[in-house]
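Inverse folding, one chain.
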């Protein structure tokens, strides 16, 4: 009898362990945790196939002239990046930092290039406390419109004093979230958010269906 009970306990133990491993594997597959903690949100930019500069900033708000400053950047879906002026070597990375030294406030510009030759640009003046303008969200109602067809653009910005579409488009204004309809027919468009001491530019990946 004891042998039977012992055998049942062993079987139940194996089943319990197996259930636990399966549950853990599924949680890991979903990015979750068996401790009940919520999985961290994945930034939408990491899931997008489009070129974006995720970040470009100085770790010190206003480093003293002549002292080393830490500058960090991150890009996705880029095949090449360049820094102007060329104070440090840079290459495509989701998160990287480097050290620079300037003798006076100076504009730093990071340009990321995608597979199709499209470019995203971010710039800020190193040595001042003014935050760099940032495009926080960007959505299009369609990526494949007919030329001249109405397209809805929704965007969000932070720290910007002006927003515009290049080469031309409807009047835009800085906002946490704003939507506007326009009729694109230029070969390429980009959304530009600017401030006194910096800017953020994102390409709009339109592919016309004629």
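Residues assigned per position:
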């Amino acid at each position: 009898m004891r042998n039977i009970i012992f055998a049942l306990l062993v079987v139940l133990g194996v089943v319990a362990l197996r259930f636990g491993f399966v549950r853990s594997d599924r949680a890991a597959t979903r990015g979750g945790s068996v401790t009940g903690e919520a999985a961290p949100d994945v930034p939408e930019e990491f899931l997008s196939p489009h070129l974006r500069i995720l970040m470009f900033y100085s770790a010190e708000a206003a480093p003293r002239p002549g002292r080393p400053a830490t500058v960090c950047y991150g890009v996705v879906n880029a095949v090449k990046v360049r820094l102007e002026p060329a104070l440090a070597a840079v290459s495509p990375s989701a998160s990287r930092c480097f050290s620079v030294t300037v003798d006076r406030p100076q504009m730093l510009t990071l340009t990321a290039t995608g597979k199709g030759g499209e470019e995203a640009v971010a710039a800020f003046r190193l040595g001042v406390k003014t935050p760099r303008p940032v495009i926080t969200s960007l959505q299009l109602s369609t990526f494949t419109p007919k030329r001249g067809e109405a397209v809805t653009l929704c965007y969000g910005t932070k720290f910007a004093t002006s927003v515009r579409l290049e080469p031309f488009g409807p009047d835009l204004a800085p906002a946490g979230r704003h939507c506007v309809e326009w009729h694109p027919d230029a070969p390429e468009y980009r959304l530009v958010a600017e401030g006194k001491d910096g800017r953020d530019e994102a390409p709009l990946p339109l592919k016309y269906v004629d």
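Residues 41-128 form a domain with the Immunoglobulin-like fold (CATH 2.60.40.2470). The longest strand covers residues 68-76.
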